[in-house]
Amino acid sequence: MKRVCVFAGSSPGGNPEYVASARALGAALVSRGVALVYGGGGTGLMGALADTVLDAGGEVTGIIPGPLATRELAHPGLSELCVVASMHERKALMAERSDAFIALPGGLGTVEELMEIWTWAQLGIHSKPFGLLNAEGFYDPLIGFVDRMVADGFVKPAYRTLVIVENEPETLLAALAAFRAPPLRQWMANTET
Ligand code: AMP
Description:
Number of helices: 9
Helix content: 40-55%
Oligomer: single chain
Distance between the termini: 32 Å
Bound molecules: adenosine monophosphate
């Protein structure tokens, strides 16, 4: 696992624990020698994460659409900044460049990015691991909602269990590194039954 893509809020959130968890994740990435791929913004949890990795001597690639580069204040000090044309290109390039995905707490953009990775796994578009850094139980309601989808027959249990949920960055990174994807054909067969 050489590069991990992290989705995170462009805002810091109201609880200082969220920024603390972004910083802890940044430190854990650097201590494992894993490079960060993210949305390229300099604000909120995104900025705190990138700053931590850079300050600790790690490598950070930001991928940001041109129009957002000014609105979200593209981080000026990244190892690499890729300016792309659209949100779709951003997500495609983030996925291509990364071996695994993590969502920190965030808003609608963060959840949208997470759900796309989850649905792409369900469709067999990728077989990379993904997880939630569940600081302050932030993602408990989302997991509860997906559990409801499973209980009501909208989601196969096999797709619910793909997501790795942990509170500690080190535990999460270790679980992502240990992940072995089920064979793709088996996933597609599950979709069809
Ligand atoms: P938020 O969680 O809303 O603060 O957004 C976090 C990041 O997700 C920001 O860099 C947003 O630009 C990005 N984002 C928002 N909507 C989308 C989308 N539809 N596709 C890709 N990225 C998005």
